[in-house]
Amino acid sequence: MVSIENESRLASTVGRETALACIRAGIEAARPDRVVADAVGLDDDRLRVGDATYDLSGVTRIVVVGGGKAADGVASALEAVLGDRIDAGAVVTPEPGEGDRIERHRGDHPVPSRAGVEGTDRVRELVADADEGTLVLAVITGGGSALLPAPAEGITLDALGSTTDALLDAGAEIGDLNAVRKHLSTLKGGGLAELAAPARVVSLVFSDVVGNDLSVIASGPTAPDGSTYADALDALERYDVDPPAAVRERLERGAAGDLPETPGPGDSVFDRTHNHVLADAFTAIDAAREVAADRGYGTCVLSSSVRGEAREAALTHVAVAEEVGATGNPVEAPAVVLSGGETTATVRGDGVGGPNAEFALAAAVELPASTTLACVDTDGRDGSSDFAGALVDADTVDDVAAARRALANSDAFGYLGDREAVVDTGATGTNVNDLRVVVVE
After folding, report:
1. Which residues contact 88 (CB under 8 A, 6 or more apart)?
2. Which residue of 249, 303, 369, 422 has the smallest Cβ count within 10 Å?
3. Helix (H, G, I), strand (E, B) or coil at 412
């Protein structure tokens, strides 16, 4: 069960309590134990994944591999469903538990670590041993890009990490970040499917990507890659990132045609690969909407794909809240307005911030009376902080100038923490992007 550690202090009004209930329900709905139990089933030699069914009568070996923030929970849920039908497995995750059939290895996020490389090496060993009679169940969840590092030849972990760090600090969108990482790695950009061929690969995907682009989630280890070495170079240029010499050299060699591209659409390595998105941002939004409706609120989903700079997206949400109160559009008050997606926060100072903290603080400066906003990352970790996000209303900001200074210094959590407005869930074991709840009384 998802726990909001400081809920009793935060839930001081009806609007705040409703916002927290919606947040809790949204995160809970996206937890792997619930999602896998609903989506995956085994009946003798018939494996059900979503709407698809796979015949296991000719399968000689089932191997589970993968990584990401939700990988530990997915592994446990698969063990509960498949039991001893699983022959071997390994996943890499930030907080590994204990498994009966699937090894759990520790990795780090958002910057890859040596521990992650070692765990990924085990994943590669298991996949490389697969043959035509093997069923590879690939666990692909948000955070897998950093947690499954397999640096390409000539690229050190430090070079990969520093490049990733620089792009994150520059506010790079996930597609641009992953275009670079795919071309510096061996498993990303369809590399896992390529290594597993000719085995059948069935991917169980928890999406933390706007639009559920399979080539972007965890940098697409089982999906065709439409990006190129040239795209990776372009991303570095647009975000003004000067990478280590080995990184630039590899990308330039690839762009010149001296290195093979990642497998793209139509490549035969994907002939026996099947990807299933089991949970995404709308999974959380839908559960939150149900809670709001049960409490008597009108509901409106703005979008599950909100992106761009957090502080700018926040003002759009404030404008919607103002419109609800003034005209009853797009829904009459009392109302709960919901959105998901993934905004970015360009680092402008040396404070402690994150996209959800910036979103919340920028909104709090402008929020009308009788309006509450909860804004969290469903994995429980927002940006560089140890918090999921924040809960604010029109009374949170008592010093507008100080709030604006905090935003200018990328220190939204500093300001919000002093006002006991942060939401603390700890690591939730899932990751389906941001969830935002605006309650208009």
Report:
1. 61, 63, 64, 101, 102, 126
2. 369
3. helix
- How crowded is residue 259: how many other Cβ atoms within 10 Å of its Cβ? 16
Q: Are 203 and 299 within one domain?
A: no
DSSP state letter for 262: P
- Catalogue the E-assigned strands of 84-191: 88-93, 103-106, 134-141
What's the rounded Cα separation, in Å, for the pair 370 and 381?
Answer: 28
Listed as own residue / partner, the contacts of 314-318 with beta carbons closer than 8 Å and 24 or more positions apart are 314/358, 314/359, 314/360, 314/362, 314/363, 315/362, 315/363, 315/366, 317/359, 317/363, 317/373, 317/436, 317/438, 318/363, 318/366, 318/367, 318/368
60 and 102 inside one domain:
yes
Sign of the alpha-carbon dihedral angle for 300, 302, 305, 306: negative
Give the tokens for residue 189.
Answer: 């950009």
Radius of gyration, CA atoms only, the chain: 22
Nearest CA to 2 out of 20, 33, 27, 21 is that of 27
3-state class of 68 per DSSP? coil
Length reported for the chain = 441
- Which residue segment(s) compose the domain that 37 sits in? 32-150+185-227+262-279
Are 268 and 303 part of one and the same domain? no
Q: What is the pLDDT of residues 284-319, one digit of tens each?
A: 999 999 999 999 999 999 999 999 999 999 999 999
Amino acid type, 191: G
Interval 360-413: pLDDT, tens: 999 999 999 999 999 999 999 998 788 999 999 999 999 999 999 999 999 999
How far is the C-alpha of 161 from the C-alpha of 166, rounded, in Å?
Answer: 9
